[in-house]
Write a structure and sequence with these properties.
Structural class: alpha+beta
Helix content: 40-55%
Number of domains: 4
Oligomer: single chain
Number of helices: 18
């Protein structure tokens, strides 16, 4: 029986890297994209002291990272291996093999520049008209940090550890006092010293929490926090805020945080307005972003938001008398209850504190409550029903009406914003942060993730010829501008020299 035969390993052949990479290979697109970037303008270090071993140009390392993230490789050690065995990487880096420390340091030290590279992918998508800029969706996703739950501490956890150590120390003290048991005195003293050292560490943590605004301490990755990922499941993680355009599900902005969503909307809206250069768009959010101050912030920027209205946190004895069934009359500044009674206000603003947030509210009530036949169904307050209205209530009511009128538009929210998360976390398996030690390093990792995601979307939506022609056109344009600048500079220097020459003669 015949079989397909391989080549003789000892046979000599003429071989070039360019032959190994087909014209359709996407590494050529990565090469074109990176070559179109102005690295000095992006903030990458390109000037090095002429002393010792030469450095790698940042373009080579950026190409390596973009290739790696597009192919689900983030580890610096793994990327180092690919440089020596992957023909595509060999072609892309022209045979260079940087070591894993160089690769890791490039990612760690260039967070701001990597963010600007992401911005370039957004600008590129805009050039190809892949971003609509009229309907967007915002949400967040949790990416696990390089910090276990065991190495995350809050005040209660610290107190439990200290209490446990105190009980063990008391136990060891009693053993030493009685000199009873098979354990030697030296062994007991070693255990006591070990527990005392641990106690000192926990007391230092306790003092740090008491003297700062921090509520948690993570020892492996200090900026990471224990966050609820879904339902009641918690992970030590970072919370990544994103804004995604509806036209082709392309993220136009991201921000790595270690707090929840409640105060995130306003800032993300402001950033989106800056990126798009206009405010004539609508952003969709889920109920986690339903915060009065954030509605005011968005309104101040002239941006229309649609945020899901959460269910009432407290109910009346009969749900038919929940506050949502009370009608507000803006003209008279009063409420009409389900029993058709009018609740009025003294027009005085009161301060109400909810956690770290402070809001101004008005109180609405009526004396008719005490004689109302529905009193028991409406409230348990012996003085009658009291309605609180926030200073942001007008904007929150307007948001509710927008959702009621545009239900079909709001239903698109999840499909828009979850598309990148599904690809990044499920398909690429990037459900955790690769770097550690700070939120800055985490942001560099996330910046590369979203830059790679945007390039993947562009590669899928734009033909290779169109992509290469567009970026090569930009490169030629900038090159011609640079050449004109050199001509102007040489001409200026020449005239300066002539003028100085004539001054000498005179």
């Amino acid at each position: 029986m015949k079989f397909i035969q391989g080549k003789d390993r000892n046979q000599l052949e003429f071989f070039s890297l360019n032959q190994a990479v087909t014209p359709e290979n996407e590494v050529r697109l990565i090469e074109v994209f990176v070559s179109s970037l102005a690295f000095k303008e992006l903030g990458f270090k390109t000037d090095f002291i002429e002393n010792g071993r030469p450095a790698y140009h940042p373009s080579e390392l950026l190409k390596l990272f973009i290739y790696g993230y597009l192919n689900r490789i983030r580890s610096s050690r793994q990327l180092e291996k690919e440089c020596g065995r992957n023909l595509e990487v060999m072609w892309l880096l022209r045979g260079l093999v940087p070591d894993h420390n160089t690769i890791a340091n490039f990612r760690k030290n260039n967070e701001k520049s990597i963010r600007k590279v992401f911005r370039k992918t957004v600008s590129l998508a805009q050039d190809f008209e892949l971003i609509g800029g009229t309907l967007l969706a915002g949400d967040s996703t949790k990416l696990r940090a390089q910090n276990s739950k065991k190495n995350n501490f809050n005040p209660n956890k610290i107190e439990k550890h200290i209490a446990y150590i105190d009980s063990k120390l008391e136990e060891y003290t009693q053993i030493l006092a009685s000199q009873d048991g098979d354990v030697s005195e030296d062994q007991i003293n070693k255990k006591i010293n070990k527990h005392m050292a641990q106690k000192t560490k926990y007391e230092q943590m306790k003092k740090e929490l008491e003297t700062t605004d921090a509520v948690q301490i993570s020892t492996s990755d200090p900026d990471s926090r224990l966050l609820i990922t879904r339902n009641n499941i918690t992970e030590v993680a970072y919370n990544v805020q994103t804004t995604v355009d509806a036209k082709h599900n392309i993220p136009i902005d991201f921000k790595v945080t270690n707090v929840n969503d409640s105060k995130a909307m306003g800032n993300m809206v402001r950033r989106t307005k800056t990126i798009l250069g206009q405010s004539e768009f609508t952003i969709l959010y889920d109920k986690g972003y339903y915060t009065g101050t954030e509605f005011t912030y968005a309104d101040r920027h002239g941006v229309e938001v649609m945020v899901a209205v959460p269910a009432a946190s407290a109910h009346a004895p009969d749900v038919d008398f929940d506050v949502e069934h009370f009608t507000y009359d803006k003209t008279s500044d009063s409420y009409i209850c389900p029993a058709n009674k009018i609740l009025t206000t003294n027009a005085r603003w009161y301060t109400k504190k909810n956690g770290k947030t402070t809001n101004k509210i008005k109180h609405y009530k009526t004396s008719a409550c005490l004689t109302c036949e529905f009193f028991a169904r409406c409230t348990k307050n012996a003085k009658g029903r009291l309605i609180e209205r926030s200073e942001h209530a007008d904007l929150m009511d307007a948001n509710k009406k927008r959702i009621e009128v545009n239900k079909e538009i709001y239903r698109k929210r999840q499909a828009i914003v979850e598309h990148p998360y599904g690809t990044i976390k499920r398909q690429w398996d990037f459900y955790y942060i690769m770097t550690k030690k700070s939120i800055k390093h985490a942001s560099a990792d996330v910046g590369l993730i979203f830059a790679a995601y945007n390039l993947r979307r562009i590669f899928n939506l734009v033909s290779q010829n169109q992509f290469q022609k567009h970026l090569k056109g930009f490169a030629l344009y900038f090159l011609s501008c640079y050449e004109l600048f050199l001509v102007f500079l040489n001409s200026f220097l020449f005239h300066e020299k002539e003028n100085s020459f004539y001054e000498i003669l005179n």
